[in-house]
Amino acid sequence: MLELLLIIPAVTALICLLLKDRRQVEWASSIGSLALLALSTYTSYEVVTSGAKDEGMLYMDGLSAFMLMLVAIVSLATSLYSIGYMGRELDEGRFEASRFRYYYALLHGFIMTMVLVCLSDNLGIMWIAIEATTLASAFLVSFYNNENSLEAAWKYVIICSVGITLALLGTILLYASSIQQVGEAGGSLEWSSLLGMADQLDPTLLRISFILVLVGYGTKVGLAPMHTWLPDAHSQAPTPISALLSGVLLNCAMYAILRYHMISSAALGPGFSGGLLVLFGIFSMAIAAAFIILSRDFKRLLAYSSIEHMGVIALGFGIGGSLGIIGSLLQMINHALTKSALFFGAGQVYARVKTRTMEEIKGLSKTMPITSALWFAAFLAIVGCPPFGIFVSELVILMAGLQAGELLAVSIYLILLAIIFAAMLLHASRMIFGEPTKVVEKREGDIAVVMMLVVLLAGVLILGLYLPQGLNDMLEGIAHLFPGGGA
Amino acid sequence: MADYLLALVQTAVLLALAPLLTGIIRKLKAWMQSRRGPPIFQPYLDLAKLMRKGSVVSQDASWLTSLTPYVCLASMVVAALLVPAFVTESFGFLGDLIVLVYLFAMARFFMALAALDAGSTFGGMGSSREMLVSSLIEPAILLSFFTVALLTGTTSLVSVTSLLATSGASLIGPALLLAFAAFFIAILAENARIPIDNPSTHLELTMIHEAMLLEYSGKDLALMEYSSMVKLTLFITIAWSAFLPWGVATQVTAPDLALGVIIFLVKLLALALVIAIIESSMAKLRLFRLPNLLTGAFILAFLAVMSYFVL
Amino acid sequence: MAEINLNLINGLAAMVLLAAFILVATGRLRTMVRVFAWQSLALGLLAAAVAYSTGYWHIYVVAALTIVLKALIIPRIIDQIMDRIQVANDVEPSVRTPSSLLIAGGMAILAYYVAEPLIQSGETITAGALALSLAVVLIGLFIMISRKKAITQVIGLLVMENGLFMAALSLSYGMPLIVELGVFFDIMVAVLIMGVFVFRINRTFETLDTSFLRRLKD
Amino acid sequence: MIALGAIATTAALVTARKERLCIQLSFGISAVAAIMGLLTSISVFLEGDLTFEFIAFPFLGPFVIAIDPLAALFLASISIVGLAAAIYSLGYVPQFIGKYSIVKFCALFPIFLISMAMVVASSNVLLFLIFWELMSLSSYLLVAYEHKEEGAASAAWLYFVMAHLGTACIAACLLYLSYASGSLDFHQIALYAGQGMTELARSSAFLLALVGFGAKAGIVPLHVWLPQAHPTAPSNVSALMSGVMVKLAVYMLIRTAFQFLHVDILWWGLLTLFIGSLTALIGVLYAIAEKDVKRALAFSTVENVGVILIALGAAMVFYAQDMLQLAALALVACLLHVLFHSLFKSLLFLAAGSVVHATGTKDMERMGGLAKRMRYTSLLFFVGALSISAIPPFNGFVSEWLIFQSLLLSYTIQDVTVNLLMAIALGMLALTGALAAACFVRIFGSVFLARPRSEVAKQAKEANRGMLLAMSILAVLCLLTGVLSAQIIPFVDQASADIVGVSIGSQITDGWVLEVNGGEVSSVSPILLAALLGLMIPFAFLLVRSLGGRTTRAKGDTWDCGTPLSPRNEYTPTGHSQPILRIFNPLYRSKSSFTFDPSSSPYSKQKMGYSSSIPKLFEAYLYEPVARAILGVAKRASVIQAGSVQRYLAYIFAALVILLLVFR
């Protein structure tokens, strides 16, 4: 039954490839992602109620159901948005008409690989899926085919493949440790069985394998020293793709690290891997803070804010405890929704003002009042203002940090959050308020996008004020999955 | 009920004596500068003359100018109600030392505003300098009252006087004397006497208090002059009854009362003499040298507090 | 009989490391591709030897695949690319050869330092090869860092893959078959994509020198 | 109340198009909501606490909303000022119709009001933090409302960043307390927080709370945003902000210090006392030197916050010496001053708003002579000025008198150094009081009296009815609370008894008279004073009429000793404050410069210019260096993203090597 989840995006990709006419391709892609969302809601509902589903190669428990929902929601939003966006790009002749089909095919191929990451039980398969995401998205990043996007794509491919090779080495070491301990027959790469026999694994091997995995997949997540590809890729890729990239791809890579984190905390106790996650989390926030202050291009600004939020999520999981895990999971959803809203808004602003350097943009609230108001609300949400969810999830992580006694990390976390808050808000308020510099006639962004922004922001707003019971049980279920997280 | 009547009489005496006191000071000053000087009842005659005159008001002035004279007089009379002069009876429950300070502040507030109202430079200069002087001297006044509160445990003037009067010489220590000295400087500052301000001239450089009255004429001028005279008498009576009240009648019996009144008059004359001596021997300090004197008063009061605790 | 096998395996592993060192030393692209082919061949033979000594048939399949894919097909693809683009043959290393050799030596020592505790606990016959494979991985990474040309970065990545495969062999006689196949498939696709990109870069930048790729920065 | 607020916001959003209706609807409903708030607070005083529970985040447990007397007191002040501001906005907001979007203002105003009410009502840490930040967010958007003016957006930004820093400190402190006591609920924290923590932890928690709430209240080193944000905000918002929002920080500081940490360390009280007097002095000094009328009022808010902190510090010192009677007295004085300040400061801001609305400028130099043109506004401003300068019959006098009494009674503490510090605080408070009076003489004099100094001031016309009604409500309240303070104190005492544990209501009030320690220390009867003063004025008028006969009152021009008087040689605000500026120069470090017109003969100069500027000390020495440091670090860090792939790979390589070495 889980295979169906993989087949849908694959089939949609194929159909898009074959269809010639633009309208049909658009319809096919939206139906495909709609079906994906429906099926994933059904399966995750089943998982929450009747426990994990193990079907040979594929395995689905609370955490993967959660990730699947995330992937499905954001991909639906992206495919709907790209209809309008790519349509306008096509009319402006930014790329040849023939490559229109490739865009949608690659998009759904990319979605399929991400679904595979969430579902695969075998760590090897998961590695292959992540490698596939890199390859699929490499073409999408270089879709515009100009120098900058090519450079960004090249860097993206090279850095990520290096990272993933290191991760493969980590997987090999883990696999080897499972063989030595249990003998030839028991050796398996299914993380569920590995989790079972975690305490018998050889600690030194496990420690080195976690380091390699953390550095490897950390490159895909964009944690601090390995984040360098992220701002280039996000700013050069077409807007829907960068929304998908930062909304979901980073989370999938984080999901992979979490699997290893589960195994290593079961074997070595949460101290080791948790400490590393906290270290990388704080380091990424620091680097992101430095660059947010200086950045001049608003898409790069959003990319750095993704690095910062991934740092916060890593910090949350590193601190652990049921509060820490629930806080980071909440942070993941809120970040995915808000970041996609921000990118969609950015697309609208770019379409209107035709420049990405923030100094030249002024008085947006005059040129496009509603869209800029929503965009500003998204900015407020991403820096963590109360009615929106990120404020609550950051507070929950703060509580977890205090309970875990990580006073130093928490105080740095608070200071960095404040600096980022000040810097982001300064950029945003400069763009939104004041007299418009460019004489641009007052015309609203197209309605479809405005509606999408409203839906996304409404989601984050609800999560800020009230946590539905169903979602709450799901989160608590996941918290119990983590060995350390049972508290 | 009797003591309220007595308090009323006491206030009436105070109000009546006020112009006489100013007349005596002027006479003493003149006498010291070896000139005859106007008769001591001259202030009464001036007030009566002014009462009959009509008043001229500048067309730019607002409703505030006509309201201020009455507010000043009212606040001065209410303050008079609270101060025990020669008998330890007054409408004490109405307010204590701090309320007195605020009543004087009220009069000063209205006067300064009225000075600005006519729009002339003199008024503005007078009001800005008056506010400067008052804000520098207020800490000294309150700290001297603080010393009194330390000594007697209460700030209501009536109980302070009765306590100090009955306890005789035991409480007259350095604290009280220092506080009295600080308060004396405050008297000079608040009532625009020589070292701070020159009451007798209209030269814009030297007048602070007079500048504020410049715009007034006729009845309003009479009221303003009268209230500043009452203010001077009140300050002197407070000085005596709050710090060195021996000789104030504590029981309501005829001989005590008579003795109290006589001693009160003698005390008034003594301080008037001291003020007259200072006025004829010292010149007016430059405006920006005033802070040294006024901070000196504050230090005196602070020393008084220190000496109470330390000694 | 077992000793011969052991010596053969260790010898072949040493050959692979030697090839990595030569790669670091060469200045010309063509020879780099040649040396890479030799390295993959040695690796294939190593796999065959391990298969022979352990009797696991699936390693034979993997060994054959390595030889066919990495020793023959990929080098030809790279040669084709280089002919089509007429790229200058020199490698322009940013780090002079002697110092890069010293660094590669340092890498080997680090690899050994890291792998040392693992070797004791490893039961497989080829545990000793782990330190060597780690060294090859690190050297591959170093090649990517120190060489300017885009193609050298591809070759560096492939060398890292070889190191990985050798590590898998030495630790646990390779991964389950499906995973191995998947890994090979991924490498093939990666090389194809990089080839496409190399073409595009050459068309837009007229050179493969990645130092021109410096426009995106903060 | 909350439901009504929500309806107001939705109403505003729904009727976006038709501006007029949207204004009436949203402000009408928020006025009704304010009245409801007032009723709830009164009901709490009469019947007792009001609690209400609901589940928002299941994994965090139930959220509790509880209003105890202390919260009810603040809720009352929010509702009164909210009511007045809502009515005022009916007349004030239409002026924005052309320039800015009305729906934004009408939607945000009720949210701001409701979030303030909820801050007071919530008794759960997370709920409190959410509404606290929501309050800063909505006020940020309102302050940035008139973003066309230059500097508005940056002032709003500074305000929001400072508020956010404050929230970060508060979050750290409150969450640490909830961790120490094991639950998020205020009552649990109040019961258990004390035991679990060491002395160091308690002091650090207190310091965090002081800094966090201080940033919001505007104590000296953190006050920088207040004089920039309040003037840029529309007047009804700045009235709400400085009237009420600043006080909520005091509300939470009281709750944290007394209920959670059971303040039993002496130096906490002394520190608050010291900071309070410093804030008061610096606030008033800057207020006197200020030319912009709303900035002067903002600085005077800083000064009043300082006075409140002095009273609070005194209460803490008494509580630490466990002299509960005196602590209750000081706390009552502090709460009274909070309540009264919210009344007269919002009155002053609303009046200043109508002046700015009428003349279009905030610069006092170009005003003058508005008393005749805006008769009622000047009268109402006058009432506000009287109350803030603590002139007897009005409410400012009563609260300042009580603060003086509590400081005076400090001599009962045995420790001499504390007594001396209290004496110094008394001196500073007296100086600040007098300077405040001077400041408001200057403001009232230069804005309303004498002749108009500019064209703009000449055409000023009276504010419309809605604005006048709102202001007169506040003015009447100022007088009533002053005169009838004896009746109000029992309510305030209920709140302080809840905190300090001892009720002194009976001791303080006896019929119409306010007494301290049952009258044998001192007593004042505001009502009788007012009656006497009220009686005396007509009596004096009659006396004068009887003595001097009919008073003829002729209109002449001001005495100008010959030279024709033009409005230019009136005493301008700069002139008025110049002597004080010179005397306190070491504190100001003001730079003044004279410019001469070189062309004319050396003896008689045609044109002479004098300009004096007060450097912003705190920005220069505290905020700029911090900002420069952060920027410097950021620039150095930006070298990482230098573009070359090799360098990026080198970073990964380095990270890997370091980790392997460290964790082998």
Write up what this structure looks like.
- The complex is a heterotetramer of chains A (487), B (311), C (218) and D (664).
- Helix content of chain A is 80%, strand content 1%.
- Chain A has 487 residues and is mostly helical.
- Chain A is globular.
- By secondary structure, chain B is mostly helical.
- In chain B, 61% of the residues are buried.
- The mean pLDDT of chain B is 82.
- Chain C has helices at residues 2-25, 29-54, 57-85, 97-121, 129-146, 150-172, 177-205.
- Chain C is an all-alpha fold and 218 residues long.
- Chain C is globular.
Defining key terms:
heterotetramer, A: 487 residues, mainly alpha, 3 domains, 1% strand, B: 311 residues, 11 helices
Radius of gyration of chain D from CA coordinates: 27 Å
Mean pLDDT of chain D: 81
Report how far apart the termini of chain B are: 42 Å
Number of discrete helical segments of chain B: 11
* Computed Rg of chain B: 19 Å
Broad shape of chain D: globular
Task: Describe the sheet with the most strands of chain B.
Answer: none
Number of helices of chain D: 26
Structural class of chain B: mainly alpha
Mean pLDDT of chain B: 82
Which geometry of chain B do the CA atoms define?
Answer: globular
Oligomerization status of the protein chains: heterotetramer
Total number of strands of chain B: 1
Strand order of the largest sheet of chain D: 3-4-5
* Low-confidence regions of chain B: none
SSE run of chain B: HHEHHHHHHHHH
Write the layout of secondary structure elements.
The complex is a heterotetramer of chains A (487), B (311), C (218) and D (664).
Chain B lengths: L1 H31 L9 H11 L2 E4 L4 H20 L14 H21 L3 H32 L4 H11 L6 H17 L18 H5 L4 H26 L10 H28 L8 H21 L1
Helix pairs in contact in B: 1-3, 1-9, 1-10, 2-9, 3-4, 3-9, 4-5, 5-7, 5-11, 6-9, 7-9, 7-11, 9-10
Chain C lengths: L1 H24 L3 H26 L2 H29 L11 H25 L7 H18 L3 H23 L4 H29 L13
Chain D lengths: L1 H13 L4 H29 L2 E5 L8 E5 L1 H24 L9 H20 L3 H19 L8 H30 L4 H11 L2 H19 L8 H7 L2 H26 L5 H24 L3 H28 L3 H36 L10 H4 L1 H14 L6 H14 L7 H33 L6 H4 L6 H19 L1 H16 L4 H4 E2 L2 E4 L5 E3 L1 H23 L4 E4 L16 H11 L1 H4 L2 E6 L11 E6 L3 H21 L7 H18 L2
Antiparallel strand pairs in D: 1-2, 3-4, 4-5, 7-8
Helix pairs in contact in D: 1-2, 1-4, 2-3, 2-4, 3-4, 3-10, 3-13, 3-19, 3-20, 4-5, 4-10, 5-6, 5-10, 6-7, 6-8, 6-9, 8-10, 9-10, 9-12, 10-12, 10-13, 11-12, 11-17, 12-13, 12-17, 13-15, 13-16, 13-19, 13-20, 15-17, 15-19, 16-19
Briefly characterize the structure.
With 218 residues, chain C is an all-alpha fold. Chain C has seven helices and no strands. The model of chain C has no long low-confidence stretch (mean pLDDT 79).
